[in-house]
Amino acid sequence: MIKFFRKIRQNLLSEGKTGKYFKYAIGEVVLVVIGILIALQINNWNEGQKRKALEKNMLVNLVENLEQNCDRLKSRVQSISYYRKSGAVIISAIENKLIVQDSLDSYFHAAFMNTSSIQLSETGYNIIKNKGFEIIGNQALKKEIMIFFEETQPHLKTNLSWGTLDKADREKFIDKNFVQFPNENGITYKPFDLESLLSNHYFIALVRKTDLQRSWFSIIMEKHVKESQRMLDMIKIELNK
After folding, report:
1. What separation in angstroms does the CA of 134 have from each of 52, 54, 90, 141, 232?
2. How far apart are CA 235 and CA 229, in angstroms?
3. Which residues, listed in sequence order, are joined to residue 11 by a DSSP beta bridge?
4. Rounded Cα gap, residues 15 and 33, in angstroms
5. What pairing do the DSSP bridges indicate for beta strands 186-191 and 178-183?
6. Are 231 and 66 in contact (CB under 8 A)?
7. Are the beta carbons of 88 and 211 closer than 8 angstroms?
8. Phi, psi dihedrals of residue 178, rounded to the nearest 5°
9. At what angle do helices 153-160 and 201-239 cross, to 10 degrees?
10. Contacts of 232 by beta carbon, 8 Å cutoff, 6+ apart
């Protein structure tokens, strides 16, 4: 093709058609420029498609993480409800002086269960962080994602850390006052001296405090599920565009 154009130029020069030669040369330059612009446009389009594909993949990962976290939190809230019922049975036995060994043994373990330790996945967000936040084209969505994972979720973890503050003391008290053995449902705590235990003010305060903690954990977990769902809805709307 280059030889073809060169031959045309040479023929025009040899025939003394200088005016036509310059017009042709200018036209050839214009064609080259247009070709370059088209190539750049195609390249930009290809890069744009790659960026969109990467962005979609990142958002899909976020959706999977958030859905997984919602399921974990909902499951934990259900567990908290069961554990609180066990604590209520113990408190009721204390208040009504219903000291029946066998009927209470199955409730002690659940009454002490710490429900604040929960793993929330953030792999999708960390990938975005490593790749660069500019991968998210929607500026409003990008801001919401950053606020959720940098502020909202860490705030939840901080609140849940309340349940670990007295963990060592609680475990020490359990080791001192209970014998532990496995059963088909997990673990059973059997007190060494039930009557003495149920009149122990520290034990009563511990059961009540544990119940208060779990009540609070349930509230903030349910709130976080709503925030996670709101985040999910925003991402899914972006994915469907």
Report:
1. 11, 11, 55, 12, 20
2. 10
3. none
4. 27
5. antiparallel
6. yes
7. yes
8. -135, 150
9. 170
10. 63, 66, 67, 70
41 token code pair: 């446009």
Give the separation between CA 194 and CA 203, rounded to whole angstroms.
Answer: 11
135-165: pLDDT as tens digits: 898 999 999 999 999 999 999 999 998 888 8
Closest CA to 87 of 129, 55, 119, 115: 115
- Tell the residue number behind the tokens 């259900």, with chain if given: 78
DSSP 130-184: HH-GGG---HHHHHHHHHIIIIIHHHHHHHHGGGGTTHHHHHHHHHHHEEEEEET
Q: Which residue type is seen at 233?
A: D
Cβ–Cβ under 8 Å, residues 189 and 173: no
Q: In whole angstroms, give the CA distance from residue 97 to residue 99.
A: 6
Q: How confident is the model over 7-56, as pLDDT tens digits?
A: 545 554 455 555 554 555 565 555 666 767 776 776 666 666 678 888 99
| Cα-Cα-Cα-Cα dihedral sign, residues 150, 153, 158, 164 | negative
Residue 60 CB-density burial (10 A; 0-12 exposed, 13-18 middle, 19+ buried): middle
Nearest to 110 by CA among 183, 15, 1: 183
As to burial, measured by CB atoms within 10 angstroms (0-12 exposed, 13-18 middle, 19+ buried), residue 118 is middle
